[in-house]
Specification:
Layout (H helix, E strand, L loop, with lengths): L1 H7 L8 E6 L3 E10 L2 E11 L5 E2 L2 E2 L2 H15 L5 E7 L3 E9 L4 H11 L11 E10 L6 E10 H13 L3 E8 L1
Helix pairs in contact: 2-4
Length: 177
């Protein structure tokens, strides 16, 4: 939630963000804005998807999903086009690894890219990788636990493309656990 809060507070003015849920039967869009230490739902819309547009949590008809998003947006009339969307947890591989706590985020990212083939069973050019520091290791104070997440790029690309077809800009692609 820290990343979402940071995204919603770009500059001094609090921003809104659209949360998009793409299920096998519908599109749900929430317009969120910060409200103190919490988030407020400003508006929402739910639109049914055509049959087989999403099968087993995978988008099989990007155009149909994009059209459904566009129809939902025309009803919602949001104040932003920035969106967050999730990839189904079953499509995401996660692993907690330990790394030297003194590494900067860019150094950590470089090391993860070099070592990723140890953790990910797919060719690296076919995956999207992200990581998040979790906190100091209980076993070794000079190490930090890092959550590594990887997903086939086609799953991310399908969601980003569907959002773009619907007139939105993907600012966050996360996973649903």
């Amino acid at each position: 939630m820290g990343n979402l809060r940071a995204l919603l507070k770009i500059g001094k003015k609090a921003n809104t963000l659209l949360g998009i849920d793409i299920s096998s039967t519908s599109i749900k869009i929430l317009q969120l804005s910060p409200s103190g230490n919490k988030f407020r739902v400003d508006n929402y819309v739910i639109r049914p998807l055509p049959a087989n547009a999403v099968v087993e949590k995978n988008i099989s008809d990007i155009d149909a999903v994009g059209e459904c998003i566009a129809a939902a947006i025309s009803i919602l009339k949001p104040s932003t086009r920035d969106a967050a969307v999730a990839v189904a947890g079953s499509a995401v591989i996660t692993k907690t690894i330990e790394m030297n706590a003194s590494l900067s985020d860019s150094e950590m990212e470089n090391q993860i890219v070099v070592e990723a083939d140890q953790y990910i069973p797919y060719p690296l050019d076919e995956v999207s990788i992200d990581f998040e520091r979790q906190g100091l290791s209980e076993r070794s104070p000079e190490m930090v636990e890092v959550l590594l997440a990887a997903c086939r790029r086609e799953n991310v690309d399908a969601r980003v493309t569907a959002l773009e077809l619907g007139g939105l800009v993907a600012k966050v692609v996360d996973n649903v656990r």
